[in-house]
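Example 9 (inverse folding). The structure is encoded as follows.
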């Protein structure tokens, strides 16, 4: 039986997180705004800051592990400006293909939402998802997200343009 866990990542996980996400950017170019080439150029310290191991970090990442191996991730980034600090963004959601349909994506989203719920003054979490990714949209809707628009021509991948759906979820007490 496979042992799975979802936990907040730390500095010690940065190299594994980098490796997972570089594979994600290469394998699923329609899903991400960043490219593998852009992220490959970044130093490990950037990835360490992204996992947000400090309690007051603006960004933080959760990982899904199977038998101790990082196979999925999702992040939360809180807005920093005074007028937008009531919002955060779920970013970088990914589960490696061999580990899909195990409930890990849902656990990652719920972990991010659980963190967001406990952040003083935070009212909502938003995200963008490729408009043609029906499975991801169903997941987000099942976790309480609602669509509020589609951005045509949001990303260019090669010669194709990808539309992104914008979604949001009000937090309890928000």
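The amino acid assigned to each position is listed next.
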């Amino acid at each position: 039986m496979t042992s799975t866990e979802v936990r907040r990542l730390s500095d010690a996980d940065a190299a594994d997180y980098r490796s997972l996400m570089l594979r994600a950017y290469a394998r699923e170019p329609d899903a991400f705004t960043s490219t593998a080439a852009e992220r490959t150029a970044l130093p490990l310290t950037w990835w360490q800051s992204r996992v947000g191991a400090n309690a007051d970090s603006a960004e933080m990442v959760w990982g899904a592990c199977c038998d101790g191996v990082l196979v999925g991730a999702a992040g939360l980034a809180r807005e920093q400006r005074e007028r937008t600090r009531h919002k955060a963004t779920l970013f970088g959601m990914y589960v490696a293909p061999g580990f899909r349909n195990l409930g890990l994506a849902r656990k990652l989203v719920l972990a991010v939402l659980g963190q967001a719920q406990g952040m003083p003054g935070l009212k909502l979490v938003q995200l963008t998802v490729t408009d043609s990714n029906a499975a991801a949209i169903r997941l987000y809707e099942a976790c309480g997200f609602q669509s509020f628009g589609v951005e045509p021509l949001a990303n260019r991948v090669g010669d194709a343009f990808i539309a992104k759906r914008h979604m949001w979820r009000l937090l309890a007490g928000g």
